[in-house]
Amino acid sequence: MPTELSRRELSWVIGGPQGGGINASAEIYAKALTRGGLHVFANIEFHSNIMGKHSYYRVTAAPVPVRSHVDEIHVLVALDQESLFGDALERKHYPSHTGHVHQVAPGGGIVYDADLKIDPAQFQRDDIRLYPVPYFEVLEEALKQLGKGGQSRKYIVMRNTVALGASVALIGYDEDLLFEAIRESFKGRKAEAAEMNVLAVKAAADYVRAHYQERPARKLTALPAEQRKPRILIKGVQAVGIAKIKAGLGLQTYYPISPATDESVYLEAKGPQYQLTVVQAEDEIASINMAIGAAHMGIRAATSTAGPGFALMSEGFGFAAITEAPGPVVFLWQRGGPSTGLPTRTEQADLQFALHPAHGDFPHIVIASGDIEEAFVDSFESFNWADRYQVPVIVLLEKFLASSLFTSDRLDTSKLKIDRGLVYQPVSPEKNGYRRHAITPDGISPRALPGTAGGIFSTTSDEHDPEGHITEGIDNRIAMMRKRMVKLQTAAREIPESFKFKLHGPRRADLTLVGWGTTKGAILDGMTELELDGFSVNFLQLRLMRPFPAQEIEALLRDAKRAVLIEANYSGQLGALIREQTGIALDHRVLKYDGRPFSRNEIVEGVREALSERTKEVMVSHA
């Protein structure tokens, strides 16, 4: 029995050569869907080379919330033959490289360039509908209306718009909403380009209506105007960037690395309006050390990176911890590893690295965000934690979140309050000597801002006494270690439960799914389908990884009848953390490590396989 989401959603995919402009077309389409009051999820998959390799953008929309993609495609838009059948050379070595035709649902449709001269028999399917459209011929008709006839090859990138227009006409969506989205995307000096694209859509829609009476089985309709709620369409890098600005970020450092760079580029564009400086450093070592220096100077500072860059930050991270810097906040956008690994693919394999980023024992905080709203709030609050507890903070994010588009209610800033922590306020500087690292019960000693009377202090990466002077004394070492480490207890006590974990569904259930990060969307969408199997399901989402809420998690898992761990890594890193902290080994593991995000199908099928076969571990990959 299908769920409401699976009955009402439409999965649309556009594929073509990298650098061919599929991004613009897919995002315009997503904007048009959002304007129609629909919930939208969109995700791009692309290679780490610059041009030529196959990439594709999937956009899933429904009148009910959708947080993930499904493997099946209802409408496939192909700009080249590889999008249909895959790369012939690669298929010799990897038979699974078969393009997207096999993913098209029965009754689904394929829009492709008629100039490819493909024999319909090559599709080897009689349960799908084919819509060859002569892209350049249609584009030529559109250009003639602007007096630009004979120039279709000059505007080759507009093939995407022709294909988009054809597919929108086939699914019956409101073309006026698409025109609005196009004009919004090409406003200002690009107004002429907007009208060219509008005409291309109209020409493609007219061609489809004139040549094809049969439509794909799945349709998509905008909601009535009075039912449309104002929503935004936003990427993870944008949500994080906005949160940083709201938090009063003063310095962002980075060295270019996928997928983190997009966030810094976004902030560079906004910086002049908000007294924000963004510095591209010479390497990641300089990036974190610049941010540490700024944090000591009283500036809210951050650095954004990915696994290979974070690997170079270890020494700086330990320096920040031992000197009790109020930060910096490190935004770690996870991608496939090890080493350079998969630069443009997603993974959740940096959890244990984030928990142990440098040698020795030291306090730091690690929070993992599961969606746009959490990334926004976590990013903002991470600066409060850095100031309040005077520790470095890691916000664990993923490439999947960075480049995916989500519809969201407008980000709520009403409850966000800046907390700069305990700052030194001298009463009588001449008599009261300031001790930066003074021993306190909660581990937090007032920090001095530059220029504060009597607030001059020393600090060092060597062990030091409360005044910051180097010493290797035994009693002092014990006292200072305890002083720093007790901050974790203080943070664990003060950080609200909403940041630590969330239990979705009933308190007790027949099946408990356990996960973290952006597996959240696919798990939540898949839970309803699993419930159709006749048992109750809940989802335990872990968020605060350090300090870990061990007692609360242990209590919840002790009540779980059967628990399945779901992670996008090879080794089940969250499962290892749970076992370390609670002594509980989860019953089953559903893992994925092919560099692609979990689809809803993979969640459902992986869990079902684990339960039916009673296997300890299931690896899924439908890519």
Summarize the structure.
By secondary structure, the chain is an alpha/beta fold.
Describe this structure in words.
The chain has 623 residues and is an alpha/beta fold. It is globular.
Overall tally of structural domains: 4
Beginning-to-end CA distance, first to last residue:
25 Å
State the helicity in percent bands.
Answer: 25-40%
User: How many H/I helical runs?
Assistant: 21
Overall radius of gyration: 27 Å
Per the CATH scheme, the topology name of the largest domain is: Pyruvate-ferredoxin Oxidoreductase, domain 3
CATH architecture type of the largest domain: 3-Layer(aba) Sandwich
Sheet with most strands: 8 strands, mixed
In total, the number of strands is 21
Task: Supply the helix-strand structural class.
Answer: alpha/beta
CATH superfamily name of the largest domain?
Pyruvate-ferredoxin oxidoreductase, PFOR, domain III
Q: Unreliable segments (pLDDT under 50, ≥5 consecutive)?
A: none
State which percent range the strand residues make up.
15-25%
Mean pLDDT: 94
Order of adjacent strands in the largest pleated sheet: 6-5-4-1-3-2-14-7
Question: Could you name the CATH class of the largest domain?
Answer: Alpha Beta
- Inertia-based shape: globular
